[in-house]
Amino acid sequence: MTPIPRYDPFSIDLHWLVAVAVLATYAIGLGRELVPTGQLRTATLALHLSLGLSVFVLTALRLGWRGLRVSVPSLAGQRWALLASQAMQLALYFALIALPLIGLFSVWAEGRGVSVFGLCVLPSPINADKRLVEPLEDLHAVGAHLMIVLAGLHAAAALVHHHLLRDDTLVRILPLALAQRLRPGA
Ligand code: HEM
């Protein structure tokens, strides 16, 4: 069986780390309202901010690595499907960069710094302007829901490739042990 052109291990690790961090940040962002007000709620929001910043840093790393590594050839397929997948990737990368930045600016606009896992604080480089806080928070919330819809479509497309089209689109981005279980010889 011909080996399939796989992503390199670092790209695979970054892909799944970002996926887990986005889901956790989204769930904590939504779930924070259920936490009773007080120290626990403050800690929950702080965790949301730190995890959200990790998404930004990991995505910047991914984009940098993508520019450095040898590109993985596209699998054979319809031209429209290739274009759709490229448009989806572009939209996801845009959201992964823009959404954390909008969240960050919404906190900075309040005149607060952002603690990063309690290790250091990112002080605000802008003048506080309370009028900006609500529009930025609203944009952040709408953007977050849109991003989860995009991520869901992205995951659904991967499952269609694997189960219906039976190609290697999903297998080549899975960690090696799992890929080999699904497709011996991968
Ligand atoms: C991929 C990264 C992120 C995702 C998916 C995300 C998602 C969310 C979601 C779903 C909410 C709840 C929205 C609602 O109530 O309907 C939220 C709220 C919030 N997020 Fe994020 N977020 C991310 C990154 C960040 C970052 C990096 C910051 C700041 C450093 C941040 C700051 C905030 C703030 C301040 C709120 C609360 C707004 C309020 O109190 O109403 N977020 N986020």
Q: Report the span from N to C terminus.
A: 9 Å
Using the CA coordinates, give the radius of gyration.
19 Å
How would you describe the shape?
A: elongated
Distinct small molecules bound, one entry per kind? protoporphyrin IX containing FE
Largest sheet: 2 strands, antiparallel
Extract low-pLDDT stretches. Answer: none
Roughly what fraction of the amino acids lie in strands?
under 5%
Total discrete domains: 1
User: Mean pLDDT score, rounded?
Assistant: 94
Order of strands, main sheet, comes to: 1-2
Q: What is the CATH C level class, in words? A: Mainly Alpha
Structural class: mainly alpha
Q: Report the order of strands and helices.
A: HHHEEHH
Number of helices: 5
Helix share bin: 55-70%
CATH topology value: Fumarate Reductase Cytochrome B subunit
Can you name the CATH architecture? Up-down Bundle
Kindly state the number of beta strands. Answer: 2
What order do the helices and strands come in, and which of them pair?
Layout: H1 9-31, H2 39-68, H3 79-109, E1 114-116, E2 120-122, H4 130-165, H5 176-182
The structure holds protoporphyrin IX containing FE.
What does this structure look like?
Helix 1 packs antiparallel against helix 2 and helix 3 (79-109) packs antiparallel against helix 4 (130-165). The radius of gyration is 19 Å and the shape is elongated. The protein has a single domain (9-71, 79-182), classed as Fumarate Reductase Cytochrome B subunit. Strand 1 and strand 2 form a beta hairpin. A two-stranded antiparallel ribbon has the order 1-2. It contains 5 helices and 2 strands; from the N terminus they run H-H-H-E-E-H-H. The mean pLDDT is 94. The termini are close together. The chain has 186 residues and is mainly alpha-helical. The structure holds protoporphyrin IX containing FE. Residues 22, 25-26, 29-30, 48-49, 52-53, 55, 99-100, 103-104, 106-107, 114, 137, 140-141, 144, 147 line the site of protoporphyrin IX containing FE (HEM). The site of protoporphyrin IX containing FE (HEM) has 22 residues, from helix 1, helix 2, helix 3 and helix 4.
